[in-house]
Each structure stands twice: as structure tokens, then as C-alpha cells.
Design goal:
By secondary structure, the chain is mainly alpha-helical. It has seven helices and no strands. It has two domains: 41 residues; 58 residues, 434 Repressor (Amino-terminal Domain) (Orthogonal Bundle). Helices cover 59% and strands 0% of the residues.
């Protein structure tokens, strides 16, 4: 097991290739230990070089609704009326503090995510 830091795209691709070769190594073997360490190194490299931005509040709400198999009508109590839910999800109106509080509880989303600014559609 010879591990070296991932410093370039070439190193990254070699690490991915090696990780693919040893991914299913039996637990407790040297190859399994190598896979664990290599996985951490690859993860670190990807976080630094391929960051993924968090979704905006409306996308986060839509994603969570899909995960929980909720419809717009299921958010009426948290947002306030069918038309208000539609306005929020179609970016015609901004979320209020009260809506954010309610949605944080209902959808188990962080308030920090929901208070992020986003653009309204025209």
C-alpha cells in the first residue's frame, strides 16, 4: 500500500481507478484499509475541487416535498392557503419568517437554508 496525496487531476483519476479495483476488498485486509484511506483522500479532493452548492430555498422545499411525497396542498397549513403555496413555489412571493419557521418543522430543513436569498420570477 503506497498512498500519496492527491495533488492533480491525474492523481485524482489514478486514485479513482485504484479505488475501483479495491472497493470490495474484504474488511480487515490491507486493501480494505487502503480503500478507506483512499476514499477519504478522494472525498477531500472532490470537496476542494468540485464543490456542490446547496440548493436555493425553493429548490430545497421542492426536493424535500418529493422525498416525502408531499403535494402543494400538504403545505397549506405551513404557508397559508393554496394560492400562497403556489406563489411561493413559483417564485412569485418570498418566504416570510413565519413560513420559514413552519417549514423548518414540517420538512425538517435547516432555517439557514431557508433564509438564503433567492430571486423571484417576473
Amino acid at each position: 500500500m503506497e498512498l500519496r496525496p492527491i495533488k492533480s487531476e491525474s492523481d485524482y483519476h489514478k486514485a479513482l481507478e485504484r479505488l475501483g479495483e479495491i472497493f470490495d476488498a474484504p474488511i480487515g485486509t490491507l486493501e480494505s484499509d487502503e480503500a478507506d484511506i483512499l476514499g477519504l483522500m478522494v472525498d477531500d479532493y472532490e470537496k476542494k475541487n468540485y464543490p456542490i452548492d446547496a440548493p436555493d430555498p425553493i429548490e430545497a422545499i421542492k426536493i424535500r416535498m418529493e422525498e416525502l411525497q408531499l403535494k402543494q396542498k400538504d403545505l397549506v397549513n405551513e404557508i397559508g392557503g393554496k394560492s400562497r403555496v403556489s406563489e411561493i413555489l413559483n417564485r412569485k412571493r418570498k418566504l416570510t419568517v413565519e413560513m420559514i419557521r413552519n417549514l423548518t418543522i414540517k420538512l425538517n430543513l435547516s432555517p439557514e437554508l431557508l433564509i438564503t436569498d433567492y430571486r423571484l420570477s417576473r
